[in-house]
Design a protein that fits this description.
Blueprint (H helix, E strand, L loop, with lengths): L10 H5 L4 H41 L7 H15 L1 H15 L3
Length: 101
């Protein structure tokens, strides 16, 4: 039995690219996407916190936890900006920010 040493995948193996130049482009773009994802997560967390403040104020004033007309505005906004997938994204954001209704 011979011992094998683990090998580190090359940049072309990691990216699926066929050239080092393409692998470099992909690696750089992926780093930018990762940074954007971190910012998006932070923004969603901020949105969740602001939503909690709104819900607390609404409930404290005797209102309902959810304002359906406002949610429809949000759904329309996302749908107009991003098409059908935008509606799904908005629904996910609304669920994160107010929970299931």
């Amino acid at each position: 039995m011979t011992a094998t040493t683990p090998t580190t995948p090359t940049s072309t193996e990691k990216t699926g690219a066929r050239t080092e130049a393409a692998a470099d482009v992909i690696t750089g773009a992926r780093e930018r996407i990762d940074a954007l994802d971190d910012r998006i997560i932070g923004l969603v967390q901020e949105r969740m916190a602001i939503s909690a403040v709104i819900q607390d104020a609404r409930i404290a004033s005797g209102g309902r936890r959810v304002n359906l007309s406002r949610e429809m505005e949000i759904l329309t906004h996302y749908s107009e900006a991003l098409g059908k997938p935008g509606t799904s994204l908005a629904m996910t954001l609304l669920e994160l920010c107010r929970g299931r209704i």
